[in-house]
Amino acid sequence: MELGSVQDQSASTFSLTDEDHTLANSLRFTLNQDPRVTFCGYSIPHPSDARVNIRVQTTGDPASEVFKDSCQDLMLICQHVRSTFDHAVTNFKN
Q1: Please, which pLDDT band fits residue 1 given cuts at 50, 70 and 90?
Q2: Where in this chain does the record put each DNA-directed RNA polymerase RBP11-like dimerisation domain (predicted)?
Q3: Half-sphere exposure of 82 toward its Cβ, with a 13 Å CA cutoff?
Q4: Is the CA virtual torsion 56, 64, 58, 36 positive or negative?
Q5: Which of 27, 29, 51, 90 has the smallest count of CB within 10 Å of its CB?
Q6: Quick one: average pLDDT of 49-57?
Q7: CA-based end-to-end distance of the chain
Q8: Cα(31)–Cα(38) distance, rounded to whole angstroms?
């Protein structure tokens, strides 16, 4: 769920259910690597609540687009790590 202003699309808070620090910290990292991002942080409202709020502020681009781009970047990073690991395991077995 996205929470933000209709007038100012450069700042939004994204609420992700059934997630924790693992995804939130990874997304925070990839978002902070993007030069369009001026601020990014996350919080977990309560330890017993499986929800993460990620706040994104940009230089002017829509925050939702920057957030989507970072999610795709994170998927590419994970795919690269997986393929590198699989390749190393194959080399070790041979």
Answers
A1: low
A2: 12-83
A3: 6
A4: positive
A5: 90
A6: 93
A7: 47
A8: 9
Of the candidates 68, 21, 17, 60, the residue with the CA atom closest to the CA atom of residue 41: 21
The pLDDT of residue 47: 87
> What is the 3-class SS of the chain, one letter each residue?
CEEECCCCCCEEEEEEECCCHHHHHHHHHHHHHCCCEEEEEEECCCCCCCEEEEEEEECCCCHHHHHHHHHHHHHHHHHHHHHHHHHHHHHHHC
Between CA 50 and CA 24 the distance in angstroms is: 12
CA 11 to chain centre: 15
Those residues with Cβ within 8 angstroms of residue 35's Cβ, 6 or more apart along the chain or in another chain: 59
Mean pLDDT, rounded, of the chain: 92
**Residue 9 CB coordination number (10 Å):** 16
Cα dihedral sign, 80-86-90-93? positive
